[in-house]
Specification:
Length: 365
């Protein structure tokens, strides 16, 4: 026998009992989250004018819960949930203002929420320079800017700005990037133009050559600008995040069109200070070598001698017009760790130029 909703009575009794338990757990969850928020408020008072956002403390909380995660939720999901709870708790102390490369709907906006949760003032800026400027002038507390993509390499503008800026790196965000091809109406047929940020176009070049060999590729300042144009041009499509489709009233033509399935962008979080040690940290630095044979090897030798691993080495013209180069290095450890501190002091004595850009918690794998 079935009831009106089409379920058998024994099934609906079981469902009812399970839902009653879920309701009771939700009550407990809410009580506990409220208690947590009240404690965060007390921490806020105890901080007495000290910095509110503590990236190292948040990283430690995330790691502890990921390690003790009993399942069935994935580690990523546990991280997302606890970061959202911390975001809400932080907001009862103070709402954090975070500048990012806008407009709304960009991958940079996703990176802001991945790191800071949704209870933030996310400020869409026109370009990467404006993100730095917002923090330097006190209009924002932090900036989140792209620094490197796993398919397409370094974001040169970010590297150039970070050398000159008084800001420090206090965090990194790793964001898997899935590109979506969207247009106003229809499928692949009749697409004559594809908009996208240069990085997005570069990440999808093989897919585009295979599926839309005759479409013109037009690079625009952001994928959101591409979405805005595609919404008005029936023969155009754009690349971008799936979130942009909903935001600009576009329909998805094809999902995950990036050439590399593991396509990931690394973002930097910049603020007035770097982070305190969290137990699993990275340190970013930039150095200039004297124009002598073996100079770069001499600069890197202290890291090798101290057994410090390097996760990135990138060279960039020093913009002096004389074929001088700057070398960007990311190494494991915090600049306050004895081994790394000694190695950095040694590099400083050998380098023509050394700037420590900041130490910060390593993002979860
Ligand atoms: C509550 C605090 O402030 C903020 C909020 C945190 C949280 O909700 O767990 C952790 C670190 C800070 O970013 C704290 O410093 O402990």
């Amino acid at each position: 026998m079935k009831d009106q909703a089409g379920t058998r009575p024994d099934v609906s009794a079981e469902l009812g009992a399970l839902r009653a338990r879920i309701d009771s757990i939700d009550d407990t969850l809410l009580a506990l989250i409220s208690e947590r928020a009240a404690l965060a408020q007390q921490v806020g008072h105890a901080k007495q004018g000290e910095r509110i956002y503590r990236p190292e403390r948040e990283a430690q909380i995330v790691r502890r819960l990921r390690e003790s995660n009993p399942g069935p939720l994935s580690g990523e999901t546990v991280e997302r949930l606890i970061r959202e709870i911390m975001s809400a708790c932080r907001a009862v102390e103070e709402v954090t203002r975070v500048a990012y490369l806008g407009p709304a709907g960009t991958f940079s906006e996703q990176a802001v929420h991945k790191q800071f949760g949704h209870e933030v003032d996310a400020l869409a800026e026109a370009d990467i320079d404006a993100c730095f400027h917002a923090v330097e002038t006190g209009r924002a507390d932090f900036a989140v800017v792209p620094v490197e993509n796993s398919t397409d390499g370094a974001v040169g503008r970010t590297l150039d700005l970070v050398v000159a800026s008084p800001l420090s790196i206090c965090g990194e965000v790793m964001l898997p990037i899935h590109q979506t091809l969207m247009r106003k109406h229809g499928d692949l047929d009749g697409i004559r133009r594809v908009y996208g940020h240069a990085q997005s176009l570069a990440q999808c070049q093989h897919w585009l050559s295979r599926h839309l060999p005759d479409a013109e590729r037009v690079s625009v300042v952001s994928n959101s600008e591409g979405a805005r144009r595609a919404a008005a041009e029936p023969v155009a499509a754009t690349l971008g995040s799936e979130a942009a489709a909903a935001l600009y009233g576009l329909s998805v033509v094809a999902a995950r069109v990036e050439d590399e399935a593991s396509n990931t962008t690394r973002f930097l979080v910049l603020g007035a200070h770097d982070a305190a040690p969290s137990g699993r940290d990275k340190t970013s630095l930039v150095m200039g070598a004297k124009n002598q044979p073996g100079a770069v090897v001499k600069l890197l030798q202290p890291l090798a001698d101290a057994g410090v691993s390097m996760s990135k080495f990138e060279s960039r013209p020093a913009r002096s017009g004389t074929w001088e180069y700057l070398f960007f290095v990311v190494c494991e450890g915090h600049r306050k760790d004895a081994r790394l501190a000694a190695a950095l002091a040694e590099i400083d004595s050998r380098a023509a130029f050394l700037k420590i850009l900041g130490s910060y918690p390593a993002a979860s794998a």
